[in-house]
Amino acid sequence: MKVVFIIDQVYLHGGIERVLSIKANYLSNLKEYEIFIVTTEQKFKKPCYEFNSNIIFEDIEINYHRNKSYFHPINLLKIPRHIKKISKTLNNIKPDIVVVCSHSADTYFMPFVAKHISKIKEFHYSKVIEIEKKENPTSIFKRLFFKFADYVETKYNTLIVLNPDEATYYNSNNTLVIPNPLTFFPETTSKLENNIVISAGRIAPVKRFDVLIDIWELVQKNNNTLQLHIYGDGEKNYVQQLQKKIIDKNLTESIYLKGATDNIQEKMLNAALFVMTSDNECFPLVLLEAQACGLPIVSFDCPNGPRNIINSDNGVLIPMGKNQEFAESITNMLENPPKLKMFGSNARTNASKYQVDSVMKQWIAMFNTLKK
C-alpha cells in the first residue's frame, strides 16, 4: 500500500512533525507499506527528527510566506501552482491513500485533487478556538469561509481528531478518534528526587509561558529551592519578552529557558513534576511523554486535551485563571513524596495505553477500510 503524508515541512521541532516521524517510521518497517512524505517548503533543510532511509521525501517548493496568513494575497497567488504541482506529484506516485497532516493551504483543496485517491485530514489543534468566530463572524467573508471549511471537511473520506471532545465540533459524520502515539516509553522512570519542575512546548503566546512565570513567582514565595526548566523554541521577540519578565521578577536563579532539545526524555527523567499552562490544547503529546517518564502533572484545564489525559489519580487539573491554586498544587505535590510517587506510577500506567503498536493498529485498520 502506498501512503503519502503531506505536510508543510519537517525541519522545525513540533508535535505534528514528531508524531509524523513515529507513524511514518512504523509503517515503513512493514513490508506491505511504501511511505512518501511530500512537503511544500522544506527549503533543502534536514529533517529535525529521524526518519527511516526507505521513506521517500519530495519537496514541491511552494514556499509560502510563513509570516503572513495563507489567505493573504501574496500567498493566494501561490495556490494555483501548488495545486498543479501536488496533482502532478500524486499522479506520479499513484498512492492508495493521502494523509494531510498540517493545517495549511492544501487542507482546503486536497479533497478535489486526484479524486480517485482516498483522503484523510488530521486535526492537531482544538476547534474550540473557532467557536466564537463562527458564531459571531465579523464579516461576510468570514461567514462564507467557515461554511466553505465545513463543506470541505465533508469531502474527506475521514477526519482524524485526537479526543472525543473534539469530535463534537464537526458538522460532518466522517470523524474518527485516534490519539497520538507515544514517541517513547523508557525502561526506567524518574526518581522524582530532584527539585526540578519541567515544562516544554513551542514558545508561543498560546502556551502562556508568561502566565507560568507569574505562577512561579508565587511558588518561590513558598519554596525557593525549586527550579523551573522550560524547553522549546519559538519567535525570537516573544522569547526575549519572556526572558525580560524573568529578569524583572528576579527569577533568573530559578527559571531557565533551555531552548529546544533533541532529548526531552532525558530532561523529563531528571525532573519531578511537569506543568502546562496552555490556553488551549487538542491532545498534547508532551503530557503523555511526561507520564511515560513517571511524572505527575499539574495543568490548567484548558479545552480539550489535558482533561483527556490527566485524572485525579495521576495529576491535578486547575480551573483556568486560578494562578494561586496552580502554585499551591505545585508546592503541595512536591512536599508530599508518597503522593508524588503514587501519582507518578499511575501516570506511567496511563501512558502505557498510548504506545505505538496500540495506536498504529487503529491507523492500519482505517487504511484497510479506505483502500480502493
From TrEMBL:
Domain of life: Bacteria
Gene Ontology molecular function: glycosyltransferase activity
SUPFAM superfamilies per the UniProt record, alphabetical: UDP-Glycosyltransferase/glycogen phosphorylase
A Pfam family that the UniProt record links to this protein: Glycos_transf_1
Keyword annotations from UniProtKB, A to Z: Glycosyltransferase, Transferase
EC number: 2.4.-.-
Keyword Transferase assigned: yes
Positions of the Glycosyl transferase family domain: 186-348
InterPro entries in the cross-refs: Glyco_trans_1
Protein name: Glycosyltransferase family 4 protein
Organism from which the protein derives: Mariniflexile jejuense
Lineage start: Bacteria, Pseudomonadati, Bacteroidota, Flavobacteriia, Flavobacteriales
